[in-house]
Amino acid sequence: MSLNREASLPMNSKGVLRVTSYVTTSGGRMTPGQGAGMSDVDYLCVLLVEDRDEDATRIQRILAGCRDIQFVVEQVGTVDEACRSLADDTYDIVLLNDQVGGTTGFDLVETLDQGDPFLPPIIMIAEHEDRGVDLAAQDAGLADYLVKRHLNPSLLERSIRYALERKDNEHKLQRLAYFDQLTELPNRAQFNNLLVERIDAAAAADSSFALMLLDLDHFKNVNDTLGHPVGDELLQRVAQRLQLCVEHGDFAARLGGDEFVVVGQNDRPWDEVKALVAEIISSLSEIYRLSAHDITTTTSVGVAVFPEDGTTYSDLLKNADLALYRAKDAGRGTWRLCDREPVTA
Questions:
Q1: Other residues' Cβ atoms within 10 Å of the Cβ of residue 63
Q2: CA of 42: how far to CAs of 139, 171, 193, in Å?
Q3: Which CATH class is domain 188-337?
Q4: In the chain, what are the domain boundaries?
Q5: Quick one: pLDDT at residue 108?
Q6: Residue 312's CB: how many other CB atoms inside 10 A?
């Protein structure tokens, strides 16, 4: 769980403190405080969606009775306020009344992007026990369904802890699914998603971008002569250097083996595209001082441009691959376009 926070209390987007803080006393209980001791204990940011002040006060007192976690709570009374808070600020958990501001808590859930990895777990707190609402909360993907009259510090703390652990496990699974474990770059599956999004955005804006397909020259020789552990260390260093080359709006990924890809930001001037390719080739060609060996390698790059060289994922990759083979045929350690020579600077 990501419980550790900065020592200062959270501010909203305008820099205004919007929370009630609870701090741990010497007796182990949490009582309202001014932020003392915040750097010494973990605390969670809670968005409480509750329109009845007396119920909100009771829930905050229950949170204050939890033994092992400190909470910072912001209360809002309507679905619209909750949506704005979730858009403006970051929370660890949402406690959602099933009836709020004349609407149901499900009205809030329906407005949220359930695929958003930064969406906090949502626990519904109902006025009365209702199996139908319980099942609906489960179907909606909510973390738990609790009844107000049953609430106590132990129950609420356990529910929050389990919700956060499940969310943490989801993040780990997503990372395994979408990020390369060796280099920590996006993997082919995530690259597919990102490139399709970039194509759609560029087509809608009538803009262009460059896709750069990279391949380490003679990488197989490293594995064959020095072993796969050295080859893996080299790939990690390559990924680190590649990340230093890309700028805001660019993204890099590892497609597999010694093959990497960089997609540039939309409408980057052609001179800047050429400069980026040259920087990548130069950076990746500098000597690598690994744990047991010093290695020098070169990189070949094939460049495809949207929409001139393709308007689909498959066409762009195919033409970038053709360009990559042209670069290797030209002597390696250089770059080519799919059907024309690069314009010299």
A1: 25
A2: 31, 20, 35
A3: alpha beta
A4: 20-176, 188-337
A5: 82
A6: 13
Within 89-130, residue ranges assigned H as helices are 105-111
Name the one residue in this structure whose structure tokens are 């909100």. Answer: 56
User: What residues contact 166, with CB distance under 8 A and at least 6 apart?
Assistant: 121, 143
* Residue 203, helix vs strand vs coil: helix
Q: How many Å from the N-terminal Cα to the C-terminal Cα in the chain?
A: 50
Q: How far is CA 150 from CA 73, 111, 156, in A?
A: 20, 28, 10
Q: Which of 211, 302, 196 is nearest to 265 (CA)?
A: 211
Blockwise average pLDDT, block size 10, the chain, 345 residues? 35 34 33 35 83 92 88 90 89 90 82 76 89 85 90 93 88 84 94 95 95 94 91 95 92 95 94 95 94 91 95 94 94 86 41
Contact (CB, 8 A) for 120 and 94:
yes
Task: Identify any residues that bridge with 97 across adjacent strands, giving them in sequence order.
Answer: 125
* The pLDDT of residue 283: 96
Closest CA to 250 of 286, 233, 275: 275
Q: What is the C-alpha R_g of the chain? A: 26
For residue 333, give both structure tokens: 């350690």
Pinpoint the alpha helices (H) of the chain.
53-64, 79-88, 105-111, 131-139, 153-178, 188-205, 219-226, 228-245, 270-285, 313-329
Q: What are residue 133's phi and psi, to 5 degrees?
A: -70, -40
- The answer, as to whether pTM is greater than 0.70, is no
Question: How far, in whole angstroms, is CA 179 from its chain's centroid?
Answer: 11
**How many angstroms separate the CA atoms of 335 and 305, rounded?**
13
Topology of domain 20-176, per CATH?
Answer: Rossmann fold (3.40.50)
301 touches 283 (CB < 8 A)? no
92-to-35, 61, 68, 134 alpha-carbon distances in Å: 18, 18, 16, 22
- Residues in the chain, total: 345
